[in-house]
Amino acid sequence: MRAVVALRVDEANPLSALELREGWPTPEPGPGQVLIRLAATTVNMHDLWTLRGVGVRRDAFPRILGCDIAGWDERGDEVIVTGCFGDVDAGGGDETFDPKRALVSEEMPGSFGEYTVVPARNVVPKPKWLTFHQAACINVSWASTYRLLFTRGNARPGERVLVQGAGGGVATAAAAMARAAGLYVIVASRFESKRRRALELGAHEAIPTGERLREPVDLVVDTVGAATWKHSLRSVRPGGRIVTAGATTGSDVPLELPRIFYPQVSVVGSTSASRADTLRMLRFMEAARLRPVIDSVYPLARIREAFERMQHPDLFGNVVVDVHA
Ligand SMILES: NC(=O)c1ccc[n+]([C@@H]2O[C@H](COP(=O)([O-])OP(=O)(O)OC[C@H]3O[C@@H](n4cnc5c(N)ncnc54)[C@H](OP(=O)(O)O)[C@@H]3O)[C@@H](O)[C@H]2O)c1
Question: Based on CB atoms within 10 Å of each CB, which residue in 125, 143, 238, 304 is the most buried?
Answer without folding.
Answer: 143
